[in-house]
# Entry
Amino acid sequence: MPFFIVQGDITEMQVDAIVNAANNSLLGGGGVDGCIHRAAGPELLKECASLNGCDTGDAKITGAYRLPCKHVIHTVGPIWRDGKHGEENLLTSCYERSLQLAVDNNCSSVAFPLISAGVYGYPKDQALRVASETIVGFLKDHELEIYLVIYNKSDFIPDRQRFEELGLLLDSEMASAALARAPIQQLDEALNHLDESFSQMLLRKIDEKGLTDVACYKKANLDRKLFSRIRSDAAYHPSKPTVAALILSLELTLDEAKEMLAKAGFALSRSNAFDVIIEYFITKRIYDVYEVNKALFCYDQRLLGSK
# Structure
């Protein structure tokens, strides 16, 4: 199942479990920890008091009480010192232990805050990298829907520095080139000789790339059920973000990408921010859906994948 970065309040997430960035005592604190305890009510604190704390890098699970989820998974992130005192290993362990607890307790959806990136001082760009890499790695072997919830978007990527070149491209005025198409002279003849459908092209490309179906839909951040619908229905019409996700999964060239988009009834337009971002990453041969989603999130565009 897919992984999304979203902006919002983690206490309002409609998921099976939310993750609390707790301290070692598990008795509440500031930031996300305080917000979760206030929203859950005093019953959460009472249960946490019976758990005898939690080690840094470990996680423990409780009920959710007044929260809309079923469980709260409490994990203790590392305090940033200089990056040379095992901080990354401990932060990775926070995500791994939390995810394993979710699986062990039959959760199908989990929402995380960006652990340790607040008062614990972990650099936000590095915290995001660890979160993304650990979650994506876990999803290779597990079926979960995972959200990384960013409360204050201005903290996500200051000045959009990582996407400076993309920002210049989006800000510039670029003319959109129209695709030249031969006119249809005989309607009946054209309808009797339809081109290869999107689904047929997708299956052909999967075979040509030597991929399995599972590898393709997981790399595309797609849900297995959605992929099954596409695979079984030659006339299926996917959304544009779904097509873009599959294009990245298959690592298509720009010409191949335009062909696949056309099969689904779409085109890339230089007047559309979403399209410019997708074309930019394809041209740069950067095919990591999660990296592309960071840019889409940064520029307030719809993310790739399925919910």
